[in-house]
Design goal:
Layout: H1 3-25, E1 39-49, E2 56-61, E3 71-76, H2 80-85, E4 98-105, E5 112-120, E6 126-128, H3 131-134
């Protein structure tokens, strides 16, 4: 093999390796969520942020103790595109909606987690999303 062909092959390999690494680094890990646990609580929707790269649902949870401050929980979902393909829209939640929410909590114990499911308390309607499944590469 000539030196010129060998150099070209090494350059092609380098470009292929660094290009793939960029794609792998473009998405964060879900290690912050404890997918072995599910927490459930009732609260009201504070805000529904329909933004990329991930939609966020803010839910106000009543105070743990009488007279204490309410807790605001931040629940992460997948992208608007993935949710739209699952039948969701930017109006799936409205501020003030009373819901029972299920989530996979943050490992550090802070008020947040990966959204799993919500039940609207006034209608009984249930909507759900699987963050890990929706974020797998190669989804159409």
């Amino acid at each position: 093999m000539t030196a010129r062909i060998s150099l070209q092959l090494r350059l092609i390999a380098l470009v292929a390796l660094t290009g793939g690494a960029g794609l792998a680094l473009a998405h964060h890990s879900f290690a912050m969520f404890d997918f072995d646990k599910v927490e459930t609580f009732k609260g009201s929707v504070k805000e529904f942020r329909w933004t990329n790269p991930h939609v966020v649902l803010l839910v106000s949870k009543p105070a743990a103790t009488a007279g204490g401050p309410e807790e605001v929980w931040s629940l992460e979902l997948t992208s608007p595109g993935n949710l739209t393909r699952g039948g969701w829209s930017r109006t799936s939640f409205k501020p003030g909606d009373h819901i029972e929410v299920q989530l996979h909590p943050l490992r550090d114990g802070k008020h947040g987690g990966a959204f799993k499911q919500a039940t609207f308390l006034d209608t009984g309607k249930v909507i759900s999303s699987n963050l890990r499944a929706a974020e797998k590469p190669g989804l159409q």
